[in-house]
Specification:
Shape: globular
Number of domains: 2
Oligomer: single chain
Distance between the termini: 16 Å
Strand content: under 5%
Mean pLDDT: 86
């Protein structure tokens, strides 16, 4: 159920807030089992209303992982502890692989057998990728690993674990939260905070509907054009996609953080002005920060981190980003995207390039490098990606050919694209986003601005311009 849908905005969200308010009545500072059950039940309704089959892998994931964590708590033998955590890793990675990478079966087993299997399973709806599977499996897996490392104790009641995983605000696309970040909030519950929560939600809704969806109307200038693309069109389409995916995902993250505040929880920040970064290293400290930290703590460091010499450090960096690319999808273009970022992280670490460039030049270099990566991320094939990059890099005949039809058809969206660029590169760098996400008191001016954002968002959300959240497909 998308946050931009009328059913969510005018039916589910008011119902959820009323249910949570009633369920949290009672002793102050306590998030009771009644409240946990209500939150988990709302998530089941939120997630399963469109396709109840999506609940099957979710229940499988959390049911087995709570079992492994409980067995880990009781196990004394190192051998048994490794066995239980290994089963959790195998279970979660297998679940991801089944749903995310079944499309490669025709390549592995041939069209006759692999293609037939994929056709049957897809036709029955059994192998349609459930939204959010990448996020809840990562959260559930990190919980078991933390229990194995003795960083946390599993709760005695499965309801607390289920409520931790089953929080509908962040369920589909994060932020990725760890149990140890939420345990204290369950134990010392702060209570619902509707004012600041709805303020953040409406700002995120505006970023998604007004900015992301406006840029989304112009990505076709570079992508989905088998007949070829010109220089100016390639740049317009590529930059549009870079801005679309930023506002789409950062808008969703801010909406999730706002809804979390409404329910009484503080989720970690997920974005911090990534397009103002002066290096790729800095970019990954600012983009999808919860995923970056997850990959660092549960992949890069276990691989050895920087503890075994320079060459091993570079290899670990590269593998971490490569696996991060594979996490996004089965296509080879995602592998190239991950390898591209991994190679540049290694280059910066080896040369100190990130500290040698002047800030202005570093920001230009970083944006161009990230933009090249987004071309592979968006393209459906190597052929399309190289066609777009070739057009961007070398003006050729008709290099200034540009059909302004979309500008004429969508003048309002064009204006919001311009405002989005101004916001991302001029206004947002002056905003303390961390302080904004922790806001306690919303002034009258801020309330009025939020209501204006809500009205504008509705105009976009209920028009033909609305575009599904990009990260729902990952």
């Amino acid at each position: 159920m998308p946050f931009t849908h009328a059913i969510f905005l005018f039916y589910f969200l008011p119902l959820a807030l009323i249910v949570m308010r009633v369920s949290t009545l009672g002793k102050a500072g306590v998030f009771s089992n009644r409240a946990r059950l209500a939150l988990f039940g709302l998530t089941i309704l939120f997630y399963g209303c469109k396709n109840p089959w999506w609940l099957a892998p979710f229940f499988l994931c959390i049911g087995f992982d709570f079992t492994w964590a409980s067995l880990l708590k009781r196990a004394q033998s190192p051998g048994w502890r490794k066995c239980w955590v290994s089963l959790s890793v195998i279970q979660n990675l297998s679940l991801l692989a089944i749903f995310k990478y079944w499309s490669v079966l025709p390549v592995v087993f041939g069209q006759r057998y692999g293609g037939a299997f994929v056709s049957v399973m897809s036709g029955n709806g059994w192998l349609v990728l459930p939204p959010g599977i990448s996020f809840y499996t990562f959260e559930s897996l990190s919980f078991v690993i933390d229990v194995y490392r003795k960083d946390v104790d599993p709760p005695t009641s499965p309801l607390e674990f289920f409520a931790f995983i089953g929080m509908f605000p962040r369920f589909i696309a994060g932020p990725i939260v760890r149990y140890k970040e939420m345990r204290g909030q369950f134990e010392k519950y702060r209570g619902m905070d509707l004012q600041s929560g709805l303020f953040l939600f409406l700002i995120g809704l505006f970023l998604k509907c007004a900015f992301a969806d406006s840029f989304g109307l112009f990505t076709h200038y570079a992508f989905g054009r088998p007949e070829g693309v010109e220089w100016l069109s390639a740049w317009v389409g590529s930059i549009s996609y870079a801005m679309q995916i930023y506002f789409d995902f950062s808008g969703y993250s801010l909406m999730a953080i706002g809804l979390g505040r409404c329910l009484g929880f503080q989720f970690p920040s997920n974005f911090n002005k990534p397009y103002t970064a002066w290096s790729i290293t800095e970019f990954w400290h600012r983009w999808h920060m919860t995923l970056s930290r997850w990959l660092r703590d549960y992949l890069y460091i276990p691989l050895g981190g920087s503890r075994h010499g320079k060459l091993r450090t570079y290899l670990n960096l590269f593998l971490t980003m490569l696996i991060g690319g594979v996490w996004h999808g089965a296509g080879l273009t995602f592998v190239v995207w991950g390898a591209w970022h991994g190679a540049l992280l290694c280059l910066e670490r080896a040369t100190g390039l990130d500290s040698k460039l002047p800030r202005a030049l570093g920001r230009l270099y970083t944006f161009l490098v990230v933009l090249i990566g987004w071309v592979f991320f968006k393209a459906q094939s190597f052929t399309e990606a190289f066609m777009v990059l070739r057009a961007m890099s070398w003006p050729h005949a008709h290099w200034l050919d540009f059909n302004p039809e979309a500008l004429r058809i969508f003048p309002l969206a064009s204006a919001f694209c311009l405002m989005g660029l101004i916001y991302a590169f001029i206004i947002e760098p002056r905003i303390d986003l961390a302080a904004l996400e922790k806001i306690e008191v919303v002034s009258l001016q801020q309330q009025m601005a939020a209501m204006a954002c809500f009205v504008i968002s509705l105009l976009f959300a209920f028009s033909s311009l609305t575009i599904p959240f990009l990260y729902f497909q990952f």
